C-alpha cells in the first residue's frame, strides 16, 4: 500500500497504487458547479477541519456560499411544494381508508340483516276479538290494530299532518334526509340536548317493521340501510300508507284506524283537522301523550302540529286557528270491566282449540252481555254496601245454562286492580255446598229423602263434630237434615256410604280438583273452584247429564274462515232420573225453610245449597232453576276470616238479585222430577199451601203426581235465625265447611 502526500503534510493511503497516480484524484476545480450532493461538501469541510486540527490551527470559519435570488426562490418553492404535496397525499390516503371503513360498516350491518331479497313487509300482529252471544264486542286481546285504510280513502290533511311534523322533505329524499340530519344536529347542539330527531318517515317505518326500539348506533345504521331498501322497493305513497297503518299511537292502538276508533269513536276516514293533528302529535311519545292519560299534553302537542301544517301551507292560518282547542276527542275507557276475566279464560284455552295464532281472529262466545252486566253490578254493589261490615273484599259469580254454556262470569270486583280470576283459578273450601254429593251417594245406595237418621252428638276417634248452634233435633229425614245443613247427619252419612264413594260421585258429576276421601269430606274440606262446582250442580238441573262448562262456540278469521266450531256433546247420563228428582225435592226445601230462605225467584221453582267454611272464611251459594245454574262465592284473597259472612247471607242476596233479572221474560219451567214421584211439577203451588209443623215428624209419602213437599224441621225452642244455620261449629273449630 502506498501513501500519497497532500498539501498541509497530510498523507492519504494509495491502496497499492503508484504514487504517480495520486494526482489523478478529482479536485474542487474539476467538479461541476452546483453539482454533486451534500455529502462530499460535508466531507470536504470535515477534511479541512480535520486538516486544520492536524496542523494545530484554529478551525476555519464556515464560509457562506453566496445565494442569489433564484436560489432562494428555488429553496422556498421546494419547501412549499413539499407541504402541499404531503397534504394532498395524506388527504387521499385518509379518504381512501374512510371509504373502505364506510363500505366495511355497510357490509357488517348488512350481514346482520336478513337477506334483502327475502325481506317482506311483516303481517300485522294477530288480534283476538271476543264477541258475545248477540255479536257485540266484549273485549279484545293482542295489539289493537284497526283495518288497513288506503291512502286515497283518508282525508288529505291526515297524512299531511304527519309529513308536516315528522318529515317535511318526505317526497324529496331517498329514505335518508342528510339535510334533516344536519338540521337536527345543529338544533341539538344549540339546545345542548336531543330536542329534534333526524329520522325520516321511511326510517321510522323500517324500525317499526323490522327492528327493535333499542337506541344503539348499530340499530340506527340498520334502520338507514332498510330505509333505502324500502325506498327502492316501494313508492312514496305506498310507504306513507304502510306507515299510517302500522305506527303506534299508544293504549295498544296500532294504525290510524285503530287510534281513531280508540280516541274519537270514529273511522280515520272521518276525522277532523284537529283530530288529525292530535293523531300526528302522538307519534313523538304515544304513551306519554295518549289522550286517555294526558289530554292536556295531547292537545298542546296537537297545536304544535297545526302550526307546522300552516307553516308548510298544508292548511291555512285560519284553519289552524279554528282547529286549536277543538279536538273533540271521545276517549274510550280502558278495558277494566269484569268481562276481561272471561277474555283471560278464553286466552288460556285458545291454544287447545286452534293452536298457535298467526292471524287475527274473532271468537264467538256464549256470554250474554246483559247478564254479564247484571252479574258485575250485583257483585260490585253488594261488596260496596257490605264489604266493611262483613270484612269481605272479593267475590266471584258463574252462571251457566243446564248444558254448561257460561252466560256470565265475574272473577273479582275490579279487573283493573286484580286480574286474578277467582271464578276459574282460585280454589276454596266449599263447606256445606259440597253436601249434595254426600246425599246423592246415599240415595244411590238405597236411601230415600224420607229416610230417618239421628241428629245427635257423634265422636270419631276423639273428633266431636257439632251443629252450628250446638243443638240437636234427634230423628230427622234426610230432606230435613240437608235443608238445615246438619253436620252430624252429614258425617254419619259419609261414614255410612264411604268417603271414597262420595269422592267418586263428585268427580262423576264434574268436580275435577283433587278430593281427600276422609271423614271431613262430608263437610266440604277439599278445595274446588267456582266454575267446576257450578258445573257439577248442572246435572241436577238438566235431568242427570254431565256437562263441560264452556264459553267458546266458534272461532273465525276476520276474513270469515272457520277455524273451530263446538260440536254438540253426547248426553252422558251421570245420575239416574229418579235420584235427580229426589235431590231437586230435597234442595228445593233449602230455599223454602232451610239455610237459603232469602233466595227467591218469583214464580220459578228453584233449588240449591249454601256453604260456609271454617271461621267464616268462605261464603257460598249454588242455586239453580231449569233455565240457569248460578254459583256465588264471597271471601278474602288472603283467606282471612270474614265477620260471620255465611252462605245464607251475602251470597244469597247476590244470587237473588242476579237470578231475578236473568229470568225476566223467560217462560217458567219446572225442575226435572223422577218418574212416579219425588218431583217438583206442583211444588211452587204446594209451597204456598203447606204450613211448617211445630214439631219434627217423618215426611209424608210421595204423591203419585210428583208433588212431594217434605215438612221442614222446627222446634219451639229454636230461634228463626238459628233455623237458618244449624251447622258450622265443627268447621269453625276444626275442618271448615258449615253452611
Textual characterization of the structure:
Residues 50-65 have a biased composition (Basic and acidic residues). Residues 30-78 are annotated as: Disordered. Pathway: Cell wall biogenesis; peptidoglycan biosynthesis. Keywords: Carboxypeptidase, Cell shape, Cell wall biogenesis/degradation, Glycosyltransferase, Hydrolase, Membrane, Multifunctional enzyme, Peptidoglycan synthesis, Protease, Transferase, Transmembrane, Transmembrane helix. InterPro entries: Beta-lactam/transpept-like (IPR012338), Glyco_trans_51 (IPR001264), Glycosyltr_51/Transpeptidase (IPR050396), Lysozyme-like_dom_sf (IPR023346), PBP_transglycosylase (IPR036950), PCN-bd_Tpept (IPR001460). The chain has 739 residues and is an alpha+beta fold. The chain folds into 2 domains: 155-323, Penicillin binding protein transpeptidase fold; 377-733, DD-peptidase/beta-lactamase superfamily (Beta-lactamase). It is built from 24 helices and 16 strands. It has helices at 38-55, 69-111, 157-166, 178-190, 201-210, 217-233, 236-246, 256-264, 273-282, 286-289, 295-311, 317-323, 339-354, 369-390, 435-444, 478-484, 487-497, 499-509, 530-542, 577-592, 650-662, 683-687, 720-723, 729-733; strands at 3-5, 11-13, 127-131, 137-142, 144-145, 253-254, 361-365, 394-400, 406-410, 452-455, 474-477, 552-557, 562-565, 607-612, 618-624, 629-635. The protein has a 5-stranded mixed sheet with strand order 4-3-7-12-13, covered by helices on one side. The protein has a 5-stranded antiparallel sheet with strand order 9-8-16-15-14, sandwiched between helices. Strands 1-2 form a two-stranded antiparallel ribbon. β8 and β9 (406-410) form a beta hairpin. The longest helix has 43 residues, at 69-111. It starts with a strand and ends in a 6-residue tail after the last helix.
Amino acid at each position: 500500500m502506498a501513501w500519497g502526500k497532500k498539501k498541509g503534510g497530510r498523507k492519504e493511503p494509495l491502496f497499492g497504487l503508484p504514487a504517480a497516480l495520486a494526482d489523478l484524484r478529482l479536485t474542487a476545480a474539476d467538479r461541476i458547479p452546483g453539482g454533486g450532493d451534500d455529502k462530499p461538501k460535508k466531507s470536504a469541510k470535515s477534511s479541512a477541519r480535520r486538516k486544520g486540527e492536524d496542523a494545530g490551527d484554529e478551525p476555519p470559519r464556515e464560509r457562506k456560499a453566496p445565494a442569489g435570488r433564484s436560489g432562494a426562490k428555488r429553496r422556498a418553492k421546494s419547501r412549499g411544494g413539499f407541504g402541499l404535496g404531503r397534504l394532498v397525499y395524506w388527504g387521499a390516503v385518509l379518504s381512501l381508508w374512510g371509504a373502505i371503513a364506510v363500505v366495511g360498516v355497510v357490509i357488517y350491518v348488512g350481514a346482520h340483516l336478513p337477506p334483502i331479497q327475502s325481506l317482506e313487509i311483516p303481517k300485522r300482529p294477530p288480534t283476538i276479538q271476543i264477541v258475545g252471544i248477540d255479536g257485540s264486542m266484549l273485549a279484545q286481546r293482542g295489539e289493537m290494530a284497526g283495518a288497513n285504510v288506503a291512502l286515497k280513502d283518508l282525508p288529505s290533511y291526515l297524512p299531511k299532518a304527519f309529513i308536516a311534523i315528522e318529515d317535511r322533505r318526505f317526497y324529496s329524499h331517498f329514505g335518508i334526509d342528510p339535510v334533516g340530519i344536519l338540521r337536527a344536529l345543529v338544533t341539538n347542539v344549540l339546545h345542548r340536548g336531543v330536542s329534534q330527531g333526524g329520522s325520516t318517515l321511511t326510517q321510522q317505518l323500517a324500525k317499526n317493521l323490522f327492528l327493535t326500539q333499542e337506541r344503539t348506533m348499530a340499530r340506527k345504521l340498520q334502520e338507514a340501510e332498510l330505509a333505502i331498501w324500502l325506498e327502492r322497493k316501494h313508492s312514496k305513497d305506498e310507504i306513507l300508507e304502510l306507515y299510517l297503518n302500522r305506527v303506534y299511537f299508544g293504549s295498544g292502538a296500532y294504525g290510524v284506524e285503530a287510534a281513531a276508533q280508540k280516541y274519537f269513536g270514529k273511522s280515520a276516514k272521518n276525522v277532523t283537522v284537529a283530530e288529525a293533528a292530535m293523531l300526528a302529535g302522538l307519534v313523538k311519545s304515544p304513551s306519554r301523550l295518549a289522550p286517555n292519560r294526558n289530554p292536556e299534553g295531547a292537545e298542546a302537542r296537537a297545536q304544535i302540529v297545526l302550526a307546522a301544517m300552516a307553516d308548510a301551507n298544508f292548511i291555512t292560518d285560519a284553519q289552524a286557528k279554528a282547529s286549536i282547542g277543538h279536538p273533540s276527542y271521545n276517549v274510550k275507557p280502558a278495558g277494566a270491566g269484569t268481562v276481561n276475566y272471561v277474555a283471560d279464560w278464553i286466552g288460556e284455552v285458545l291454544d287447545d282449540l286452534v293452536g298457535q295464532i298467526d292471524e287475527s281472529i274473532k271468537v264467538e262466545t256464549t256470554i250474554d252481555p246483559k247478564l254479564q252486566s247484571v252479574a258485575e253490578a250485583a257483585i260490585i254493589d253488594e261488596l260496596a254496601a257490605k264489604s266493611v261490615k262483613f270484612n269481605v273484599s272479593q267475590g266471584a259469580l258463574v252462571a251457566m245454562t243446564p248444558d254448561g254454556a257460561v252466560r256470565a262470569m265475574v272473577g273479582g270486583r275490579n279487573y283493573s286492580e286484580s286480574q286474578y280470576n277467582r271464578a276459574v283459578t282460585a280454589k276454596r273450601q266449599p263447606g256445606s255446598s259440597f253436601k249434595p254429593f254426600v246425599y246423592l251417594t246415599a240415595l244411590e245406595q238405597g236411601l230415600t229423602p224420607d229416610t230417618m237418621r239421628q241428629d245427635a252428638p257423634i265422636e270419631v276417634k276423639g273428633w266431636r263434630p257439632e251443629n252450628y248452634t250446638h243443638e240437636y233435633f234427634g230423628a230427622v229425614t234426610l230432606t230435613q237434615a240437608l235443608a238445615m245443613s246438619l253436620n252430624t247427619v252429614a258425617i254419619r252419612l259419609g261414614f255410612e256410604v264411604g268417603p271414597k264413594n262420595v269422592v267418586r260421585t263428585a268427580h262423576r258429576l264434574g268436580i275435577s280438583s283433587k278430593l281427600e276421601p276422609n271423614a271431613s269430606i262430608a263437610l266440604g274440606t277439599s278445595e274446588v273452584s267456582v266454575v267446576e262446582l257450578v258445573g257439577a250442580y248442572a246435572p241436577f238441573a238438566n235431568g242427570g247429564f254431565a256437562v263441560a262448562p264452556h264459553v267458546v262456540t266458534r272461532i273465525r278469521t276476520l276474513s270469515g274462515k272457520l277455524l273451530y266450531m263446538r260440536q254438540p256433546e253426547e248426553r252422558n247420563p251421570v245420575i239416574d232420573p229418579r235420584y235427580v228428582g229426589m235431590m231437586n225435592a230435597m234442595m228445593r226445601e233449602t230455599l223454602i225453610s232451610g239455610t237459603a230462605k232469602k233466595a227467591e225467584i218469583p214464580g220459578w221453582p228453584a233449588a240449591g245449597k249454601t256453604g260456609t267454611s271454617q271461621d267464616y272464611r268462605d261464603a257460598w251459594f249454588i242455586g239453580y232453576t231449569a233455565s240457569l245454574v248460578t254459583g256465588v262465592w264471597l271471601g278474602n284473597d288472603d283467606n282471612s276470616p270474614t265477620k260471620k259472612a255465611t252462605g245464607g247471607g251475602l251470597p244469597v242476596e247476590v244470587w237473588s238479585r242476579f237470578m231475578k233479572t236473568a229470568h225476566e221474560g223467560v217462560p217458567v219451567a219446572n225442575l226435572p222430577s223422577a218418574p212416579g214421584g219425588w218431583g217438583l211439577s206442583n211444588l211452587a203451588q204446594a209451597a204456598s199451601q203447606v204450613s211448617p209443623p211445630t214439631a219434627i215428624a217423618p215426611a209424608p209419602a210421595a204423591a203419585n203426581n210428583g208433588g212431594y213437599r217434605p215438612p221442614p224441621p222446627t222446634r219451639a225452642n229454636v230461634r228463626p235465625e238459628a233455623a237458618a244455620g244449624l251447622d258450622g261449629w265443627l268447621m269453625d273449630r276444626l275442618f271448615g265447611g258449615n253452611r
